[in-house]
Fold this protein.
Amino acid sequence: MKVLAILLAALVLVTSAASRQGTTPNIKEVFIGRCWDYQEIRYNTILPIEPKNCSHLWDLFFKAFSYHAPCDVRQANYDQYLQEAKQSLPANKAMFWSGIYNLAHQFSDNGINYVTLEDTLIGYLANSLTWCGQENYPGMNFSACPTWTDCPLEASESFWSGASTTFAASAIGPVVLMVDGSNPNKPAYRRDSFFGKYELSGLNVSKVPSVHVIVTHALGAAKLEVCGNGTLVTLQNDVEARGMTYTCDDNPDSVMYLLCAEKPDCRECKLAKALASGQLSYNSSVITPDYIMG
């Protein structure tokens, strides 16, 4: 099995090295610097944790994947690191996302409104980094790393699957999930997504009574899926099958405020403004905002 993983990794890296990014340069220094930043500045009042030894955390993280073939790193390799770095989450603030990274983190506001995996120490230290191992010195491959779709047991996917499971298990109280209902390339809910594979099953139903889903739609894009149809029906069934209550909301005001702050001239934003101000005119049975017709 190990030989097969090495051969597979070699084939992936040789055939695609020109387009692959290797381990992030100075990853050790970035990792340890983030660790100090997290504890001393960024999250010290929002998500306080017991003091961590940043060099020790790096050693555990490095040990998990270093001197391994890039396609031969199991989720269990990270168990010791995840156990050492995990922290308690505030009740009623855990937020998950799928296919909607930027908006989800604007909505969560770096742990102030909600807490995402990337707001925790585990997620913050590894977020946006690339890494993979090699069997010879220095134990990390700085030339090219496989992607999640290239091979099983890829170093970063194994990490994020474990991190997602750990985060879900720490959730207390109702949780929120944000999904994208206007992406033509990915359905709003996929059972093979991180939420579908690891986070939903990782929730402790004795501590998490409900999942509230926020379905967002890009401004000007078609609403391919809304609450109550498409894959969101499957999501509801999966949530309820685990014994939790399911609720769903399409483009709540709090999300529209964020979207319209960036693109105030979009039709949806003009409509929302007109409805809020009462600037409406009637054409047959259709309500048309005077603000738009202007």
Observations:
- The first strand starts at residue 95 and ends at 98.
- DSSP finds twelve helices and six strands in the chain.
- The radius of gyration is 22 Å.
